[in-house]
Amino acid sequence: MPTISDVARAAGVGIGTVSRVLNASPLVSEATRQRVVAAIERLGYRPSPIARAFGGRRTQTIELLVPLFVGSFFVELLRGIEVGLATTQYSLVLRTIEGAEERQRVFDDCCARGNSDGALVVWMVPPQPFVERMTAAGFPAVLLNVVDPRLWSVAVNHDTAAEQAVRYCLRLGHRRIALVDRLEDAYDTASRGICLRGYRQALGEAGLGVPADYERLSELTARGGAAACDSLLRVPEPPTAIVAASDAQAVGIVQTARTRGWRVPGDLSVVGYNDSAFAEFLGLTTVQVPIREIGRRAATALLGALAEPGNEPETIYLPTDMVVRQTCGPPQPLNAGG
Amino acid sequence: MPTISDVARAAGVGIGTVSRVLNASPLVSEATRQRVVAAIERLGYRPSPIARAFGGRRTQTIELLVPLFVGSFFVELLRGIEVGLATTQYSLVLRTIEGAEERQRVFDDCCARGNSDGALVVWMVPPQPFVERMTAAGFPAVLLNVVDPRLWSVAVNHDTAAEQAVRYCLRLGHRRIALVDRLEDAYDTASRGICLRGYRQALGEAGLGVPADYERLSELTARGGAAACDSLLRVPEPPTAIVAASDAQAVGIVQTARTRGWRVPGDLSVVGYNDSAFAEFLGLTTVQVPIREIGRRAATALLGALAEPGNEPETIYLPTDMVVRQTCGPPQPLNAGG
DNA sequence: TTGTAGGCGTTATCAG
DNA sequence: CTGATAACGCCTACAA
After folding, report:
1. Residue A23: nearest nucleotide (C-alpha to C1')
2. Which residues of B touch A223 (CB under 8 A)?
3. A52 touches chain B (CB under 8 A)
4. Distance, angstroms, CA B225 to C1' D2?
5. What is the dihedral of CA B200, B202, B208, B212, to 10 degrees?
6. What pLDDT digit, counting tens, does each position of A204-229 carry?
7. Does any CB of chain B come closer than 8 Å to the CB of residue A86?
8. Cβ separation of B50 and A50 shorter than 8 Å?
9. From the CA of A306, how many Å to the C1' of C12?
């Protein structure tokens, strides 16, 4: 495996010159450059990223911190990230997270040693010590689909999205609208719902008080949605519409309702969240989240922070859209329903 | 950021001793070890993986080559891989692949320079030059869900799986069974179907010739399945059952059939493939693939190959299972159908 | 059992 | 513009 010295010798120049050619420095004459390039070609030389990271200062590596509840969301996100990174040489190292302790460990390791130049943090708010450490180290991190004013963040506004969904149901004539939310911090069962505020806000604006027993928290799975739906359909005055915090939950809700003999959207309207790949084919009415675009913008933001370390972090909100399909309709007149 | 020398100085020992402690060498007295550990603790020292990779020989890094058509498959796979790697220090660097040229590029880069100690290759057969290069370099790679006798492979047998699905339909009484297959090489439209052989085999064993116009190829998406279904329902003698090469395709098939007024499973039975997360909630009858286990076993195999470089590559087949849900039933008597 | 010296392949910093 | 040379942080001999 040829090294930079081999190339230098073959081209009859010093290693400094080869390094300059490698790094596209303008301080090389065209003639010399050609000779060096030829030698590189001839020897099939490829610089060692590791030696590079070691000698230089930057690792050309970005850490990607991903909690595994992301599900199919993840591949879409990756597509966007790859687009944002396409013109660069950065490698992504993957740190998957399955539970609270693991999250702790991953964040502890993240900017501890110069393993990477920056981080993309998916769907998690980092712990305080991490924020301090990285701020002190000038280590840039970008949050995806979650917001922290101390850091770069690219996200949709989950409350606004919930408002959209609730308002849509209100427009259809619904008054009994329930929420199947998800934990703001998926690994902290003491945390609140992520779009509770938006839900309540929209109901409040419509002059409807917050219903007593219409708020549920569930895992981001069909199973979780199913359980929440089960419980919602049992309350004395069950909802005529349910707004979910994910498409997976929505699928569970639709399925459970139908199994129990409720027609969807006849007896129960359901709104999903994300517009996942399968939502279209299930005819799921949902709130579209520009997942790929979040990935792309986050990558771009990180590259920007890497290039100009000084800048203050910004929060970039991307808009969400209602996608109307077949799981929502006007509520049945009370006396006509089951 | 403290270095090994700082620790050595603080502990009043040489750097060699610190290195030995770091690498759990037995050649350190307990007393010395304690002092060194204390110093490490006190200084908050953490060895630099990069320097380590540079000075030593191994990078503690595994490349994960993933084509992005994997979809939700990917997260399941990751879970397994992480389990297999849990007790180690290996990092995963992610190389996503979106098309044929990108695949070429990624494979060209993969074992070219000592960036990584090994590779996990998801759902792709590597090009010949890569195989030669890595074999020559003693660079281990493990294929996931695809088989190449020259390399370590952990997979299910797709033909056997198709046989299972077809046999199940045969047992239900179906005789007109179609296949919506996927390309063996997703980026080569000239390649064959991945489970065509198994499909034909099962039909042949049942004494049924291969139907003339019952074989389709489609993308691994609901849309692809929908298009294939559309065309299958138009043939003079349409099938009474369709075996798909993915759950996504199956969803598209079910949806399309129902839209056209065919009852599923009344008029048309559908079998999916993989048993993805959503299959259960859609009531999809499908062939279960132990995705997570494939990930785990592949990681284990790679660790093994890393530990004992000499061994011959093996192919590990994991079994598939029929999961019976609600999209298959006996065929309608010919005169009763629509 | 321990300390010391050499090397890994770059980049960066100097003189020239 | 170019060439030498000093880091960079660790591992692995080898010498003690």
Report:
1. C11
2. 281
3. no
4. 63
5. -20
6. 999 998 777 999 999 999 999 999 99
7. no
8. yes
9. 20
pLDDT of A13: 93
Helix (H, G, I), strand (E, B) or coil at A87: coil
Q: A143: which 2 tokens?
A: 């949050």
Reply yes or no on whether the pLDDT at A92 is more than 70: yes
- Which pLDDT belongs to residue A119? 97
Estimate in Å the CA A60 to C1' D1 gap, whole number.
28
Closest C1' nucleotide to A15's CA: D3
Mean pLDDT to the nearest integer, A306-320: 93
Give strand C nucleotides closer than 7 A to any protein Cβ.
1-5, 7-14
What the block records as the tokens of B138 is 């003693």
Instruction: Please report where in the chains the tokens 């020259």 appear, as a residue.
Output: B150
Distance from CA of A232 to the nearest CA of B (A): 19
Identify the residue with better confidence: B211 or B65: B65
- Output the average pLDDT for chain B: 93
Residues of A in contact with B92 (CB under 8 A): 93-94
Report pLDDT digits (tens) over A252-288.
999 999 999 999 999 999 999 999 888 988 899 999 9
Strand partners, B243: B179, B271
DSSP, collapsed to helix, strand or coil, labels residue B163 as: helix
Contact B93 A92 (CB under 8 A): yes
Which pLDDT does position A227 carry in this prediction?
97
> Helices B158-171 and B196-205, interaxial angle, to 10°?
40
Nearest by Cα to A156 from A333, A281, A317, A323: A317
Decide: A263 and A240 in contact? Cβ < 8 Å.
Answer: no
**Residue that wins the pLDDT comparison between A334 and A315:** A315
Among candidate residues B105, B40, B72, B244, the one with its CA nearest the CA of residue B162: B244
Please list every residue in chain A whose beta carbon sits closer than 8 Å to the beta carbon of residue B255.
281-283
User: Which nucleotide is closest to the Cα of B12 by its C1'?
Assistant: C3
For residue A337, is pLDDT > 60?
A: no
Q: What is the pLDDT of residues B151-160, one digit of tens each?
A: 999 999 999 9
Q: Measured between alpha carbons, how far is A145 from A136 in angstroms, rounded to an integer? A: 24
CA closest to B137 among chain A residues:
A1
* Kind of pairing between the strands at B269-274 and B286-288: parallel
CA distance A82 to A73: 14
Query: 10 Å Cβ neighbour count for A157?
Result: 17
Size of chain B, expressed as the number of residues it contains: 338
pLDDT surpassing 80 at residue B333: no
Retrieve residue A4's tokens: 């930079």
Burial A28-43 (b: 16+ CB within 10 A, else e): beeebbebbeebbeeb
